[in-house]
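Structure, all three chains, one model.
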Amino acid sequence: MPMKRKHKRLTFVMIGVSLVGVAVGLVLFALGDGVSLFHSPTDIVVKKPSPEQRVRLGGLVEEGSVLREEGSAVVQFKVTDLEHSVQVVYKGLLPDLFREGQGIVTTGKVVDGTLVAEEVLAKHDENYMPPEAVEALKQSGQWKPDDGAERMEMAK
Amino acid sequence: MHRFANPTRFLKLAAIIQPWVAGITLGLFAIGLYMAFFTAPPDYQQGESVRIMYVHVPSAWMGMFCYAAMAVASAVALVWKHPLADVAGKATAPVGAAFTFLALATGSLWGKPMWGTWWVWDARLTSMLILLFLYIGYMALQGAFDDRARGARASAILALVGVVNLPIIKFSVDWWNTLHQPASVIKMDGPSIHPDMLWPLLIMAVAFKTYYVWILLVRIRQELTANKVRILRLKQVHGG
Amino acid sequence: MSEFLAMGGYGAFVWPSYGLTAVIMVVLLIASLRGLKTTEAMFERLKAETGPIHDHSNVDNNNKTTAENADAHEA
């Protein structure tokens, strides 16, 4: 009965793939936040990591918070998830996409509530369009500067 | 269906189709590259660096598509023991591996100026690296056994186990926070990419796909001919 | 022209991306086409030696296949 054998093999393959899927799903579920790249400002404010612990913080650069010290490479800014914000100090080169309102991910240690950053990475959003299209949207008043709420979903 | 899956018939058909696929591929690449460099505008945030997208995104899509094709071929080979399925899976693996490698390499070249780093261990990049390892494992298993049939079975099982990685790659940017941005083209509420950029991207994606079909035809023909060579060798040995 | 090559300052990232993609795709294509050619040549040669299974195509040049190629395909 060749048909029967085929069905048996098909059943084996389907059960095997589903079992692997369930197993990996459970592992990933258990790992949970461990798989995530960064913590939100709220996490940092609530959990208060120790100064020895290296943390990754992700969020938006708060509008109007960027301070550059004259004649040095030191930059200060706040990272926010629109609920809480964390002060960041960084010395070094910033990526090209760094600007106010931009999503960033920064690594460092939290000392007295301030994140002393070793690295600042820029996140970009999923929108791609030419500059002229942005101008047109702005003129017609349909431009949403950074869809803050949507992006914050990412930071949570 | 089974009529076309007959290897001898396939060889004849493939030889006829191949030049057409080759022509279409070259034509699509000519149009796609022209659009990518001359008609597509720079991005409002990323400037000219956005042009990397036209090779990065099709590579990543094809890296995943080839894996899905390889897994389907593996399932057909395991369950129905069809002679063409093993050959198709084996022919797909190096192409998929090449695309996955390209997605990682061009992503790195894009990440450095935009994110500020060549690499980060976020869920999207890591799962894509695992995809590359799955391809390498599949190809290694093919050659790891003296008995070709056992090698084919072992690699087919690996391909099926690895399928679980595909949804992880796709949804990694939604399930966890990552440095990689979420999907722009294939998403529920329509693409968030300007048509002037979407069109070159889609044309390049189709060009990558027909390139895969081209290579697939060539490699399947090669594998089937190699099988015939093996049969002739056996005949020589036994015929003395 | 030089402005085009500069890619708004991102030339050092854009051109290697396209270059690498082109090199890998072309190498894979050429390797696949050559593999097919050598295997087909070997098949024709063996067929001529072994005698017909069902011979409908004339055996044309089989001098191209060297022992080296045969070895490469054993592996």
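Chains C and A do not touch (no CB pair under 8 Å).
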